[in-house]
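INFO batch 0412 | record 1 of 1 | parsing
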Amino acid sequence: MATTQSAVRFFKDIRFWILFFFLLRMYGITFPPLEVGHNWRQTDGLMIARNFYERDANIFYPTVDVAGEKSGIVGCEFPLLNYIVYLVAAVFGYEHWYGRLVVLLFSSIGVFFFHRILRKYFGESVAFNAAIILLVSFWFSHSRKNIPDIFAVSLCITGLYYALAYLEEGKWYRLAIYFILALAGCLAKVTAASVLSVLLIPFLNKENPATRKVTLGLFSCAILAGIYGWYLVWIPYLNETYGFGDHFSMGTSFMEGAKSFIGSFPKVSKRFYDTAMKYTGFAAFLAGLFFLIRKKQWIAFAAFLLPFLSFMLVLIKTGNSIIGDTYYILTVIPCMAFVAGYGLAQIPNKKVIAAALVIIAIEGIADQIYDFRVRQPNKSLEELETIMDGISKRDDLIAINSDVHNPTAMYFAHRRGWTVTNDFLSHEENIQDMHAKGCKFIVIAKEQYGDISLAFPKVHESQYFKIYKLN
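INFO prediction complete | emitting tokens
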């Protein structure tokens, strides 16, 4: 009996499940960032990290390799994740999979503090259910991708825990941890700031001392100032000074964004009821909303609604970007998982809750298995650097046919230059213009981005690539 009870306690400990899913996602951790889902977003960040390692380690001047003849210095999210990858590389040598591991570590910490916050204010059942749902949601695959979204949200969740602790205890070290983590998270991905909107709830609680609320408010204003300084002052400066402003989108006006959002609403809404937690998870979410309203749990409802609405405001600013860039939904999944966890907690039978969690997990994970494999023709890009080393120097500028603004092929070529479409290459004057700016080779990724023949000497041809040398 004692052994059975110990086993039950063990499996009820969220730390076991965080570790379990951590180890599960270690499968293929060293795979190149060439899975179908958002390989371009990963290689974009890794390109910046590698340039910190190889060119200039100044964190205020992130550099990409797809700016043609320009320096490549570009405005983007504050490159904290990229810089951590660089710091690891400075010790162990550069490897692309460091980014996967860093995000996986921080996301696991974020789930742990997510559970601690919910357990403290809403009970163990809600916290456990919500944490499991978060682990098997769209976070499952994306928490091992070199993109800043989950990394940033995890920092903000952890920062939120320390902010709440400061309001209750008044210890300054907790305030300092909040400030550092929340500032880092918001700078790394501005949408992550929506997590911190939950702090409006304890600000209205009269039991929290006014001096602590004022102090926390001042530090939060400092975080907002940091966001303003980076996104509205420094990014425009970098783009204007170094002439590569097309790389990072600052969104559109709220009016234009709202029109685009409404016009694409069926596709946008699918990101919430399908992409985020799949259908069974979304059903639990709807049940949670029903019970929150029926039982008049307005504080819990506000804990969901504040970050959700804050996220929606930022999302509208991007228009309908979430249709293609599905990673936007990652920011709002924690508050949705909280509501879903609350919904399951209303079921009196614990075995039914466990069964529901298993079903949600199976559907969620099964839908993301594809993201743990690298297939052709993507895999062929691993060979590109070796091929280019055999025919060119590392500092030669090249052009690669690709999707618009997709840096993946250039990252694996380990060169600098232009990513252009086949239509662009079909006009000889465009090629001559690149040649005048220093372009020496044109790479055609035949099966990856489509074949095209050019009237220049061919120096390489294989199943996946053709390479032309410009006269």
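INFO post-check: The CA atoms of residues 197 and 306 lie 6 Å apart.
INFO record closed
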